[in-house]
Amino acid sequence: MATALVTGGTAGIGLEFARQLAEKGHDLVLVARDRARLENVSDEMQRTYKVHVEILVADLSDRAQVGKVAQRLGDEARPVDLLVNNAGYALGRGFLENEIEVEEQLLDVLCRAVLVLSHAAAVAMKDRGHGAIINVSSVSGFVAMGTYSAAKSWVTVFSEGLATELSGTGVTVTALCPGFTHTEFHDRARLNMSRLPDIAWLEVPRLVRDCLSDVNKGRVVSVPGAQYKVLVAALRLLPRGAVRGGSGAVHRGRRTTGG
User: Fold this and answer.
1) Is 89 a catalytic residue?
2) Which position among 49, 89, 148, 228 bears the catalytic label?
């Protein structure tokens, strides 16, 4: 039976990955900071899908705790067949308004943890000749809107490079780049999204199904939703000056409405 390790697996996109993978018969290793939430999700998965669930309490902004998760990924006696690097968060204020320690913490979770865990998983999977890595990025990585946008751009390009390096080994890497998605993400970051039109929103179950389908097809970049496929294609063609100008206008608009 295959085993999937999901970071940030107690809410939002990570929780939906856990559910859909458990439904397919995957055993789970769930990683998050909150033990109580981990235990609640573990109980739900075991009760509903009759799979084995292991929990790892870890704060991925802490290097030692990231190392603990990396050790689990490299455990040859308990192989992990699919890694979903999903843990993350956004900051509700601009770069210059935040303390630098807060910005560094964001980069530790969104970039460094992805780097370390992808390395541990890829080495182990390459030795076995099979496996898959999903790195949850964002459509915001194609624009220019502060540290979060920059970090997600790094995740996408890093995933593309790793996918190329692993070509022919039986191990695939997919960067999932969703747009605005109905989760608790924006509320926790205190972002006001009330003016966003309905057409901009994605639903988590469809997003995860589409991503898993793209993984099975070996796609390196998965952009769910027709509206975001069109947007990303356009952003890749536009001059960077135009992208920066549009991103700045959106950012200023969110600040005005309390985002």
Assistant:
1) no
2) 148
